[in-house]
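YM 10:42: Secreted protein sequence, as discussed on the call
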Amino acid sequence: MTASHLARAMTTAAIAALLLAACSTDTQDEAPAESTDTPKATSPIDFNLPDAERFHRAATYPVYLNRPAGEDPAAETVAEISTVTPDGNTLIYTDAAAKRIGFLDIRDAAKPVGLGTLSLEELGHADDQPTSVAAVGEFVLVVVDTTGGDFTKPSGRVDVVRVADRTRVHSIDLGGQPDSIAIAGDGSFAAIAMENQRDEEFTPPGAEEGDLPQPPTGFLQLISLTGAPTGWTPRKVEFDVEAARAAGLDTPEDLEPEYVSINSRGQVAVTMQENNGIAIVDGRTGAVQKIFSAGTASVSGIDTAEDDTVDQTGSITDTPREPDSIGWVDDDHVATANEGDWKGGTRGWTIFDATTGEVVWDAGNTVEQLAVRTGMHIEGRSESKGPEPEGLAITEIGGRPTALVASERSNFVAVYDVSDVTAPQFRQILPTTPGPEGVLPIPSRELVVISSEADDAEARVRASVTVYGFGAEFAGAKPSFPSIVSGDVDDAPIAWGALSALSADPADENRLYTSTDNAYGPSRILGIDLTKTPALIDTQLPITDNGQPVTLDVEGVAAKPDGGFVLAVEGEEGPGNELVFVAADGKIEKRVSLPADVAAGLGGQGLEGVAVDGDAVWVALQREVKTDPKGVARIGRYTPADDRWEWFGYQLDSTDTEGDWIGLSEIQVHDGSLLVLERDKLNGPDARVKAIYRVAIPDGGGATGAEAPKVLPKTLARNILPDLQANRGFTQEKVEGFAVAGNGKLYVVTDNDGLDDANGETVFLDLGSAGQALGG
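YM 10:58: structure's back
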């Protein structure tokens, strides 16, 4: 075992020990499923803002829908930075992947309409890429990187395009490779960060690969916007190397300006991400007024090991912030999103005094804790920069100065009241599709538009523009996000995600049980309090085998009336599928494998759901056994008393989408029938099948081996697709769990896959009375 592997193993063992200590009880076998003295976590955040004081998701528009006629819908197309025309009605976004800009009609915020695209090849060269856009008057300034592959000869331009007819009226040579653009509030000038970015695969003499210096250095361009566009010319602002060195910047001979923002006095704030610096420039005279270091931060209570375990005992020490986006909170303070680059990143955001350069507030670990608390933590980035706050915008909403901070990896925008720059107050979390890059407030319409840069056509998780509206007039999306959160134990939220199952608590009508699958380990059974809004995960019970925590791919959970649980555990291959019987204290009592001839016919999609009905245990297999007819999945009945398996067939629906498949996700016993959750592999606008079907419990026995089972008739009980679409987000693929609680209500939950090939949003639906919800 290597030293790194040993460290990870010790970390996993340590967190497992903490879980055991937190959740241990003296429960006997006959005790109820959850001991009444199990400590309950509480939420430190009240997510329940009145409708009039919160953002509501109005629409999610996948930008591949705005592609040119005849283009393959699977071609990569993204939305990175956006701007809006002065009337607030036409959104314009950059699509660097497809080397074009796109136009959307957002007059109806709930129904964006694609207005087509403008290829940069029409304006210059097929290799040109847009880096930013900014609307001014009847024009949009399109910032274009024309460097190609030669980082030693950076080049770029600004094209002035008339929005009405999309014709270029002027082009301005920038003398280098540009990144961000900002327009002064009075429209008098523009500022452009000229990054002249480094080659991440080049090794400078005496340095490491991708390191600095890699000349030429970057600078700032100022463009006066007075008069006709044909008269607009740039004015170069260079930064003094010695002043940057005195300020403590990383490599002052090679500055790389990243992002710009302009205050009401015309001062330009510029981040120099790789150099961990910030500059303040008088945008009217070009005078550099201040250069200061963004400094370092030490952050504890974070997950720093990529080991499939959310271990919040990690820390980073004296790490450079390396800010990306910047925004003026007021004329004297700037806020930065500290994404980091190759040497830093502190997983939060910071407010600085722009005159002195001193920190007045820092987020510490709170952004990462927000991700964990809402199931949006991406464990696969733990060793890097965690949630990676990248985008940031400052606006005024509801009379409050407001900061909007985008987490590039955890796929959300956090909203803060920054009325007091020394004590920002968290207000809300807004989910997005993967890779939120651009955050665009439209104050005149009380909208915020978020554009996302990650596009995965194979997984059908597409880059989108998400529109949020502030105030009660935009209410209506149900449920509001987050619909389920976790409480804190010892100042750390219970880690969760990839919820794969639901089960009623036999001892409490207002509680459910769920579990994470193997995206997060060790395995735990989580308790949900349904009396809270959002629903609150407030207990965690680790699963142990011979006294040691284990990680299982738990896909189904059934709480037994007399205490304990039955788990449906999916294997990587058929023989790994098993029922696991667990005592009320989490100890594994028995493992039951599937019959060998059935297991041999399964691939990677096996046991998905489990339910207890008296002396019998019902299970659902997700996909067909290879020896069975195509399109027929299996429902199984296991009788523990005589260790007997019986099998029945279930006819799956179908779609006409290439590459799609249909499978089962959950099974429950309710009102004398079996209820089965069936879903397709599709999400977003492609989603077709997300439904609960009712199946009569068979009177006789079933098949006992690999022989084809008798197919049971099914009737539709609930089409869940409209319920998922009602929140106006990107429709989730993995509807994985449902249950009828003791209170008589039907609940449904989606599996966010730990943010792997998914946008990470978990939807927890309260569909009301089960009798009405299921057509009874």
